[in-house]
Fold these 3 entries.
Entry 1:
Amino acid sequence: MSAGFKVVIPARYGSTRLPGKPLLDIAGKPMIVHVCERALAAEAEQVVVATDDRRIFDAVGKLGLQAVMTDPNHQSGTERIAEVASIMGWADQQIVVNLQGDEPLIPPAYIRDAAQALAGQNRAGIATLAAKIADAAEIFNPNAVKVVLDKDGYALYFSRAPIPWNRATFPDKHDIAAAALPHLRHIGMYAYTVGFLKSYCNWPASPLESVESLEQLRILWHGEKVLVKIVDKTPEAGVDTEEDLVRVSNFLYSS
């Protein structure tokens, strides 16, 4: 499988907490532009913003970046990316990285890591990232998704629960230093082949993903492999709130 890859950035204007989030100013630029720049720095062959809003489409185009208008009725960014792949006529073996439009601090190396991990094997049509957890509180935080791997680095399960459960220490004290296995936090970036995307979008939602509210469990439910590349650390959090916007702006202004 070729290591060349494209990046698609799903970007919706509607947001309950931050309406117009992709166009909010961060250090003098719309947030979506920062994300595009991260993708370009990762040496992607092509970077495309997938949006359902003309304001985002126009703003991206004015800056010389590529955007595609997609169906506003999509239920997920994955479906939006599949539509872009179809519009562009990309081949089934083409690798596409799904980069969230609210991640202006994502390390470009991580984008590349996901694509190269997928290209380096032929058992899975999707690859993602994880990092070791050093803080026990993170293991017990339901907003931090955990993943358990098999011996070859493929996902056995994703959960909001503290997995694997350390029977020797967790009932009484949260001692992760004594754990036999490192606990891993899933980082929600995905590299897919276009052929995998086509299959995925035809699968019905699974009971597991409904219970855990984790879309990636649909893949395991349908018997497919998910390759997980372990990286050095969890990246800086994205932008969901006004407080996040201030934090990220301060980070970029000071860096």
Note: The chain has a mean pLDDT of 90.
Entry 2:
Amino acid sequence: MLARQRQEVILEEIRRTGAVQVHALVARLGVSDMTIRRDLDALAKRGLVEKVYGGATSVVGRPAQDGAGEPRSVRALAEKEAIAAHAARLIRPGTAIGVSAGSATWTFARFLEDVPDLTVVTNSIRVADVLRTGGRGDRTVVLTGGVRTPSDSLVGPVAVRTLRSLHLDMVFLGVHGMAEGPGFTTPNINESETERALVEAGRKLVVLADRGKWGVVGISTVAALDEADVLVTDDGLPPEAVEVLRDRVGELVIVETVAAELPELAEAEA
């Protein structure tokens, strides 16, 4: 069994029961103790599980699924990482960027370590935590303030006022869904006004959205499709979606994800 397959089994078990034990996984999957521990290390490194003594649990304070209800599988994370890596290369040193809350932008934040002289404004506590632990002396991280939601984003009048006073070079937006009519949407009305203020604060909008977002419609629109200067997505996007998006967004970037899978995901069981 490939590492990717084992890790999907582990994630599914954690979604079902909330926790796994190493010895139980060894018996179930027929592999060594060290192999299971490597799998747990790989999943923990990507923020999908919380390692504990003798096993792992779901990440404290975070559901096993993201805000869009999409299972956070290893494969879905590979797509997000490929999208995030490309998006990070769009940033020039010395710029000020905005980063929204969400699993896609949290992944994106992990790819900003090598960008020098960067100012990041975000309403996501999780994004701010990633950037704070990087330890760069030439980076400024600004949290908007506001009311904290269960997903660790900051929303409401305080966040909106802060964002409306700022002028950012680029904004990187993660979305719940995208569709031809409604555009880029969110399922949370409280978050939508804050996200719209973030979009309006930037001179250039870059949307990060994997294939699973197409055709999904949340209750509130954050931005129309034609407001996106760049949309970065993956190569699993349906052909009809590609046709619509090429016509509507400023630039459609489709990244390859098969080659982007990390070594742990391609490792065959020894």
Note: The two ends are 9 Å apart (CA to CA).
Entry 3:
Amino acid sequence: MSSSSVTESTTGAPAETGAANPTRRYGLGAVALAIVVGLLLGLAAGALIPRSQVPDDASPEAGFARDMSTHHQQAVAMGLIAFQQGSDADVRSIGVDIAASQQGEYGMMQGWLRSWELDPTGEQPRMAWMPDGESMVDGGLMPGMASTEEMERLRTAQGKELDILFLEMMIKHHIGGIHMVDALLDQSDHELVTEAAQRMKNTQQKDLTNLRTALERLQG
């Protein structure tokens, strides 16, 4: 599933909460199954990297896989909150699509690390693989990531407040993620990793278009 599947309400018409409700369309059980299947498929895809291309523990590829995995885990959590608690049909649809796609990518990156026989967390500080990356970590948070307090506010928000807060937080989150992808692309010549990273960037750029469109409608 891709977050490009936004309902017609992004054109400016009020979002309908009846038939367009993704909870009715998918069901919570189906969404949970999709998340698990996405993880397993991602792990399988990550394990297909040729053994001749094995980065070392301090490589940009290993650092990126570890840090972006953490980044993606938060996006999955945010997306599921939007899906389960959002009041706007587009917000729920975008949330579930982001959760599913990023869970699959998380599995893929964890599959890389397993294939490379590297620790999934490692001992390097956050963003140490990126030039001046450690200086970009603010209070332990990588670019675009929400604080514990922000996540709690999202969990407890309701109605339109939750919808807008999710969109604003996810826009910031994706911009930070794209910045990390660009840093990896500048440093790595690992063909399969860079191809996967570019796909992540392309997906997140499409997500940003949908997120901004929905935010403009709700705020307008």
Note: Confidence is low (pLDDT under 50) at residues 1-20.
